Amino acid sequence: MRITAIQEKTVSIASPITNAYIDFTKMTCSVVALITDVKRDGKPVIGYGFNSNGRYGQGALMRERFFPRLMEADPKTLMDDTGQNLDPFRIWTTLMKNEKPGGHGERSVAVGAIDMAVWDAVAKIANQPLYRLLADRYRGGHADDKVWIYAAGGYYYPGKDLTALKDEMKCYRDLGYQVVKMKIGGAPLAEDLRRIEAVLEIVGSGKFLAVDANGRFDLDTAIAYGNAMAPYGLFWYEEAGDPLDYALQADLSRHYHQSMATGENIFSHQDARNLLRYGGMHPERDWLQFDCALSYGLVEYLRTLDVLKQNGWSTRRVVPHGGHQMSLNIAAGLHLGGNESYPGVFQPFGGFADGIAVEGGYVKLPNVPGIGFETKAELFKVMKSLGD
Question: Which of 104, 124, 183, 376 is catalytic?
Fold first, then answer.
């Protein structure tokens, strides 16, 4: 067996929304199709992938470096020991040939999208849902039959007043979500507190509300927000400062004694290890949000989970960023704590299978081979146009 072609298309996921740091009016992502010579129902097995929102499409990097390495490799070096399927780890090694260590920037996003397509193909060739394949390989065959999810929204956009913010959060609750998340840091503290209190009117308690500053704050501002928000008892306070400023995170933890979350902009197991060593994170209180689609893919994610284990963290404290089906499969198959969800933005890439409702804050996964992209009609329409 062999990979016969690999293709990329950059598509728009633009939206007139902002967080505390960036706007999304020109946001793009890369869609990847990895085509094999394995046939199912007379058609070649195709693995699909894409990168999560917040980082732009990576087509140039893929075509310049990563696709040629993959296509020039001896096909036998990309297969597993049975010769009947692809080996994601061997493929990852091929992709990263001649790449210097460190400096985990845009290449981690390019490799992450390709890696997603590889795992989709591997699970399809094995005729298993990815989460079942992962559970069989790494969790003794035991997969979670449903995954806890929260609704991420509460962005800033022109003309969005408190009534519109409350209506948005009420919609999420009506869809079956229990916990919702909103943005902070894009307005003065007093205004953000009014926004938080407006959302609390809808969800009823701080334990159902998380807030996200997207790395906007310096230490003094992060502490000021933390002191002001402490009485609310929020679900978590996310990414207060720059994601690589471990000292700021550690200092904040000495002032804010409730749950915090970070990690969506940590792109390697080495950086994850440094966060745990120096960031003051508490394994019984805090949450980690590493996103495989931005951080070299699932191959590297497994290394990151090993780092967590070595440092006394349970995988149940991991709730990935991204809000897509790949992270959902990883959460179910590897026993993570849950997954983000984007009910209203970044479509069609955000969200899960059509026809599976959110119930009590949980969602189930479809029983189809691969990641399940084919069960999300609008998303698969985009993907299929690339693989045809």
Answer: 183
